[in-house]
Amino acid sequence: MLRFRSLASLAALLTFSTASAALHAADTAPQYVVEDNDWLGPGGSDIQSVIPLLNRPNVSVLGLTVVMGDDWENAESAHIRRFLEIAHQTQIPVAEGATLPLVNTVEATRLREQQYGTIPWKGAWGGLGSIDHTPATQPALGHLPEGMPHLAADTTHAAEFLIRAVHAHPHQVTVVAAGPLTNLALAIRMDPTFASTAKQLVFMGGLLDASMTSVTGNADFASDFNMITDPEAAHITLTAPWASITCVGNVSNDIMMTPALMNRMDAKHTPATDYLKRFFSPLPLWDELTSAIAVEPNLVTKSVDAYMDINTASGMDYGHAHVWPDSTAPKNVGLNKVHIVLSVDTARFLNEFVAQSQNAMGQH
């Protein structure tokens, strides 16, 4: 009997050791990431979203891709390349992508505002102001307050860059999408295996039940800009065969960049923190939280799974997200279950973001 107990104890110990080794391997396994964003700058949520990915053990940033949205694509590309120079992270390639949505246009958006009311934030197409004098296509690049970059963009188009990245590391690449989903939709159409070859998609957008927030809070924060700018791309992307999709939507509106937080970041002076302090922008940490969750999913304290899609029918609901439980979800239309983040460990996220911003500098 004693011998059997010893054997059982040994088996239990071996099982525990094997499980511990597996967990350790999971913790130390390399995480490959490509972030696609509409890199409005200088400073602000878009630029700051790369910080949770920098100098993090076991995270390899394969590249950054650029999509039109918060600004015109050529300006965004220049802003993020300049920040990488300032932070001495020029080993990270930047691939330029879509300069317009798949279907949506300046003229269609101008007409939509006339019919259904003002869109608070229009990004490249008028910002918080009027769309009336916005050109139909991307204008020439102007002056940058932080200076022009010397780092050249990668010669590969963003959609092709994304495709190459996931095939170079099959089922290991996390795609972080924090702007309109145009580049991802192009990649999906160019290569039907693109989504299924990635590890997962983590995206910023898909705000739900935001109408009351637009009345009682900040209408801009409730507009779901990334989805309404290119609804067709969002629909294509969210119905592609990803192994996993995580939606960082409403929860990101609740965590703000404040002067106190910026002062904490700037307590350690580096070229990167000085840049962030100079171009401080008091906005929610939308994209920063998205990229942090992508590489540290245990920041999430509560989530729910539901089917999700984006409306592509013309009208006031164009570009709005919809979700369904199993019992009422539309059938046979390619919908995916999405992990919708409901709450996060805010204190931990902010503490780590401060530390990461102070450790953002690469080697000379």
TrEMBL record:
Keywords: Glycosidase, Hydrolase, Signal. Residues 1-21 form the signal peptide. Gene3D superfamilies: Ribonucleoside hydrolase-like. The keyword Signal applies. The keyword Nucleotide-binding does not apply. Pfam families: IU_nuc_hydro. Residues 42-350 form the Inosine/uridine-preferring nucleoside hydrolase domain. GO terms for molecular function: hydrolase activity. It comes from the Bacteria. InterPro entries: Inosine/uridine_hydrolase_dom (IPR001910), IUNH (IPR023186), Ribo_hydro-like (IPR036452). This is Nucleoside hydrolase. It comes from Neokomagataea anthophila.
